[in-house]
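To the team - PLZ complex, inputs and output below.
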Amino acid sequence: MTTIVESTSSIAQERRVVTAIPGPQSQAMHARRAKVVPPGVGAALPVYIAEAHESIVVDIDGNQFIDFASGIGVTTIGHTDDAVVAAVAEQVARFTHTCFTVTPYEGYVRVAELLAEHTPGNHEKRTMLCNSGAEAIENAVKIARKFTGKNAIGVLDHAYHGRTNMTMAMNFKNSPYATGFGSLGTSVFRAPSSYPYLDGLSGEEAAERTIWYFEKQVGASDLAAIFAEPIQGEGGFMVPADGYLNRLQDWCHENNVVFVADEVQCGMARSGAYFASETFSLVPDLITVAKGIAGGMPLAGVVGRADIMDATHPGGLGGTFGGNPVSCAASIAVFEQIERHNLLGEAQRVEKTLMAGLRAMQEKHPMIGEVRGRGAMIAIELVEPGTKKPDAAAVKHLVDEGFQNGLLLLNAGTNYNVLRFLPNVRMSDDLIADALGVLDAACTSYRK
Ligand code: PLZ
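Output:
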């Protein structure tokens, strides 16, 4: 255990490119992979990782990348945080699995207590734990249907909820998530969301439009739940107009519809609050959580109003690995670290630094149409200058230039024209400034 901590802690917090990207070792590994892993499982950048600490990921060729992906918003408090590593090592040595629904253990209960404490609202809450974001959504669908006795599920344009059968049906984009994969989960209805940069609507106007769609397409009497990501992740980090989510939830409450906030990507300190709902003064009925809640260990859950959660019958919820004890130990350590090191404040610092840097870049580069987001969840939407026409090639250019220069970056957006930043909340201002320098040069070199 000590060896692991010492070897990772020694990684210098700087980018360092020592080979072509991907390097020779990674290329050889990629060829090995192609013989045994299907192409359906993608790789944004096929460099193979040897180790990671805090903000830096090191590949097997010795290249060091500044990590703005965090494994798609998972290692929110940084890679191999000492307290998380120690908690995991300690729990692994005690027991790794019993199945909570066979013989339970404290870690699961403690995570449920921490989620009850740190999700919005002082009402009584319950939590069920599972393994992935998609599984959390699947469970929230089951719970909302059971509670309301209704069937239909409402989702929003640009939404992403997962890759299982039901969640594939809930995603906005059919391609690549569902193409050719057969018939989808049924009774899913979709309505326009709030996308202030493109629709120019107030929160009230956008909510009225969303509600109109649901009323006309399905009707409240058949609708069990509406799912909304408070800040959409894969869709491109759209921050909805003020009051939008609140009006939608009010309508849900007037009509016995469960309002579910999918906080899989925007939750757990990412937005500068524990949960992004809080930044909109929103107290959702159910919240789905995953990704950042366990420092890189697989853990997810549904947290919500006791009356809704308790509508499920004994034995109705479960799964072999749900709430694995090692993942729970990691999660408890993440909560402790957020408190101990004021990581909500740190996420707010990252927002200030990134926003200021990106806004300064926007002044120079009219290809940056909008800078938006909250906390350590910031994006730029790239457009053809003077228009709002999406420019996916510009995002590809910036991401590729980033890769070649030691930055791990992800695209986003229905039109692939959004560049998103998902750093850990402790990334230093110096590393952010260094990365923005690379991107500024990449903007300058675009179409030159
Ligand atoms: N809900 C809001 O962001 C996962 C998808 C990566 P899982 N987003 C990353 C990919 O291409 O597979 C996500 C999300 C929101 C649900 C999910 C699903 O979470 O843990 O990937 O199942």
